[in-house]
Amino acid sequence: MVRVLCVAEKPSISKAITGILSGGQFTTRNTGSNFIKNYDFDYPRTNARFTVTCVAGHLTERRFDDAHNKWHSCDPFALFEAPIVTTIPNDKKAIETNLRSEARNAQTLMIWTDCDREGEHIGMEIVQVCRRSNPQIVVKRARFSAIIAAQIHNAAQNPVELDRAQADAVEARTILDLRLGAAFSRLQTFNLQARFPQQIQELVSYGPCQFPTLGFVVARYEQVQAFVPEPFWYIYMSLTRPLSSDEGDEVVEFTWKRGNIFEHGVAFVIYEGVMRDPLARVTKVTRKETKKWCPLPLTTVELQKSGNRLLRLAPKKILDIAEKLYQEGFLSYPRTETDQFDPQFDFQSLIAKQTADPAWGAFATRLQGDGFQAPRKGKNNDNAHPPIHPTAYAGQLVGDEKRVYEFITRRFLACCSKDAEGWMTIIDVVAGGEDLNSQCFVSLGLVVLERNYLEVYTYDKWTGKTVPEFEEGDEFMPTVCELKEGRTTSPSLLTEADLVGLMDKNGIGTDATIAQHIQTIIDRKYVMARNEGATKYLVPSTLGIGLVEGYNKIGFERSLSKPQLRRETERMMVQVCQGQRTKGEMLAESIEKYQDVYVRARGQFNQIYEVCSS
DNA sequence: GCAAGGTC
Description:
40% of the residues lie in helices and 20% in strands. By secondary structure, it is an alpha+beta fold. The protein has a seven-stranded antiparallel β-sheet with strand order 14-11-12-13-10-9-15, covered by helices on one side.
């Protein structure tokens, strides 16, 4: 029998594929690593003996050689071309040992890492380690897009090859980020510490993700600073009339369809025209069904955005809690870009686990009947992990863990239910006569008929508004018809949720790292959190503003604090993946560009000092 | 004392 060594990217995957391929009949061995087990079983479909194990993310690390690793060993500019060595860090040595000894006993190595760029690269790292103990080992790659029995069996029986181009793209980015990070971090730190020895003792780091992140915070701050409120005018119209049923009056408000007018003279002339014949006539009454859609399945970025907004927790904190709940078996894998469930996904067994809860159990029970509807499908699929969902009932949690679990569970149940349904009434009105003076107004009413998902997803609000009773042709004299003045309001400073959204939209960081980059710019004192009421806003420090403003003077396309340069790196990685460029070409071109940026940046420090001393 | 990306 052929002996096959299967290596997954993380413990949860090795356990899951073992469960599926072995049909539950397997033996477990410990390894030198606390959290990694080796599983053995026969796989008769390919007449093989399987051992399944895993790594924990990347196996190797890169650093500069000894001649350049020390901070004052060289001019930072030399780091663009200094030799780089690859090592296995100490906390990964036990994993390496396990792979080497398992590979010795196997004829075939089957890579089961996630099917993305990083997964191909981790796969290559695994291959290199295994070949050192077994140079003859045959390498295969299992290709799967979800942990579903049929797919996993298919992957085991029809393996493909590792994709070297994808691994190369990751390698190029790794090297580039190390060179840039080190060169610019040392440049910034040396210069600023020398100029402000009293104020700046700590590291002034640069990173191709942390700087665009900082850039967003500074850009919004400057918009707020530069904001000047502008007055505008609009016609306000309302009708107060006695209610037909009980005592009291109702006030029906009408919105002017022209919106806001920024010139007082123009607004006043229109208003005078209306006042010559203010009798209002109902031109149309529309009554129609309307819906409020239930939410999409939950991705990591969405979890962090909504969690920050609704639970008021830092994105990093939310991800840490989700990670812990995942380790404890309560949640599915918390780092996913996927907002669509696989058609074969087993919703009912997961819903059944929630029926015991005192708060949402009754709702879950209804989803076991005709309350259920298959979730909407979003546009994203990382082909590795399903949307975040509860995998077991957790009744004992307290504090923030309870709140995060509750949010994820309510969100999952809401996804599996029907849209809220309502009845909307639109009253169109014209006032000011029938000639050029006439102006259009509108009033909206809403009756919520079926709350459906809203009953469990208590974070969404959808409230009814009394429907005014009008018929086409009705006429009335408005109780109030006046020209009102308003003022434009300043944009808000960024919240963490806003920043997560901007980073996601601009491709800065990944689902797993976005929260870390935000934490980094706070730790480095480029940004502070300011509480206003219950909301936390991000405010840049003088140092943060100085760095961004200084670099922005280099020009938009090359500024280190704009998303463009990172987008370019990302674009080149895609080209390497598609074979349109080699790893070497990507590196050479990027390094040359950043050397140019470096020289320009070095010339900006007087500007940066100036802002920082103000 | 430098990065970003995986993951524990």
